[in-house]
Amino acid sequence: MSEKTRVPTAINGGPFGQAWSARADCLQSLTGALLGAFLLVHMHFEASILLGKETFYRFVQVLEGGMFSATGHGWPLVTQIFSVLILVIVVVHAALALRRFPVQLGQWRALRGFMSNIKHKDTRAWYWQMITGFILFFLVSAHLATMILDPEIGPHLSADRVYNGHAWILYVVFLPVVLVHGLIGLYRVILKWGVSNNRSLIRTIAQVLMIYLLCLGSLSLITYISIGSELTLPVQPFIPK
Question: What CA–CA distance (Å, rounded) separates 37 from 35?
């Protein structure tokens, strides 16, 4: 094979590697932004339980396509399909993020040494995003697997899953980890792609959002636990008035 027709054997060097790296960075940022936006919407959807069982039930029916049903009830299949889609995006995002992970002991030592000697806030933010990202891969997979295998959602059924199914244990860990990872990720995406260069302002907004969403998620979880504790077994789906 001549020099002119030789196919590149690696993607980490030369023009081919640079082009791949640029596309991978774009795709990683895009999937991260999509997941971050989904997190914000999803947490407010879950928090609708704070407005009462009836409100949460109506939200579920709308999101599951109840307006297209003759009975007004949505289809749990919609939840399954959407959960599979989110899982695919999570896997793609995680695979792209792994390119930046230190894979050798020496790299970890160099990183720790750098962080000890140079107090750089963005480096520390990236470090915690990397750690929480690794943890999240397992937590998100467990959460989405539950929604795929058991897609029934409702004030009683969701509360039963949280309380009697002991899912609250997962969510107690899940909530702070996903918020740290997601908000740091959105902060870095905004800076990386030049949406804003005001680091101080973006960092402040991220911190305020962190406190707000942590309180919102905690109140929602407490409400689900409270509802679940009052249910009698076997649990019956919520019936609106």
Answer: 5
Q: Please tell me the distance from the alpha carbon of residue 180 to that of residue 37, in angstroms, as a whole number.
A: 14
The span from the CA of 19 to the CA of 170, in Å, is 39
Q: Quick: pLDDT tens for 25-72.
A: 899 999 999 999 999 999 999 999 999 999 999 999 998 888 777 777
Report pTM.
0.83
Q: How far apart are CA 39 and CA 19, in angstroms?
A: 30
- Other CB atoms closer than 10 Å to residue 39's CB: what's the count? 18
Locus of tokens 């969701």: 158
Ramachandran quadrant class, 52 (left: phi over 0; alpha: psi -120 to 50; beta: rest): left
Residue 241's contacts (CB-CB under 8 Å, 6 or more residues apart) are 54
Distances (CA, A) of 31 to 5, 26, 48, 95: 35, 9, 26, 11
Cβ–Cβ < 8 Å for 146, 161? yes
